[in-house]
Amino acid sequence: MTLLFVLATLVMVALPLIPALAEWYRPTDALPLKVVRDYDGSADHFAMRFRQFIKARMIEVMSGANAEPDLIHHGTLANGDATILIGRDQVLPESAISKAQEIDAVIAALGSVTLPANIFAKSEVYAEGNIDVSERTACRALLADNDLTLGAGCAVLRWAHAGRDLTTGPRARLWGRLTAGERIVLGRDSVFTRLHAPRIETGAAPLNEKRAEDIERALLAMPDNLHFYSSNRWVFKKELNVPRDTAHHGDLIAKGAVTVGERCRIEGSLKSVKQMTIGQGSIIEGAVIASKDLHIESNCIIVGPVVSESTVTIEAGCVIGSPTLPTTITAPRIRFAEGVVMHGSVWAREDGKILGDAMTRYPAATTREAATLAPAL
Asked: What SS3 state is found at 230?
């Protein structure tokens, strides 16, 4: 009886392995899988695909509208989605808005278009000119070949792209991906997740990109708590404190906290397995990486990537990256003061905020609102 039980157990264990053993003994599926890469990884991928969609589906109607600038054409796509094609430089007609203050149709404008206040555009909006979104209007997705302007309290749930400048008013809720061909300007007290543009500015505060004349700096002395060093890399056993007005050529890595004094210049990268603070007016010519909180004080220049596994806080007057060397800022939480300039990409994996008068406070209702709207779209 025991032998039968053992044999039955072995058979049950072996049965699921028979197809794998047969394939190993006589392969029948040795060719590589065919992978169709329909996503090129570019930040404005969704915007470009939507432009192609609009041109392909509505080309005949759009050609007719060119001859009639005042035309407002209601149609239906092959999948049943409603469309509204409008002539040049018009305000969205009231007939497009339901009693629930919603727009269900895909909108395409041959010129510029203005969306009224306090509505919800549940489908995409495209304009060959500019798009102006009035205050407190929520949008699923927006594509403007020229400029895109979002009024105070507006929301973007999926993505928005401007061929030139994308500007938001205060208290914008930018839950989707924002991209621009030239510049993004974010209003105070706004929240965001992903940004990409050659130039990104925060707030309406004056931007201070002028730096004082180069000053005399003392070379960083080699301390006693070095774990390893070479001509271009110093590794510290514990914390690292760089005195103010200090210069160093090479990378600095610490197994503890890192504090960089005011007006320092590091011709290399900084890395800490704990928190890091960079004093005001300092220049870091490489990357800045911290496992915990990273605080960059005012008027600093960071040339390379800025990375934290906790929170990044960047004060006014800082410049991250450059027009010729765009870079990346990434962290679960990102906090910008007004008057910061960035070049490249910003990714707040949990949430990003532009700090205005309420430096650390923001109404939690916006999070709940996005959580309510987004799943339905």
From this structure: coil
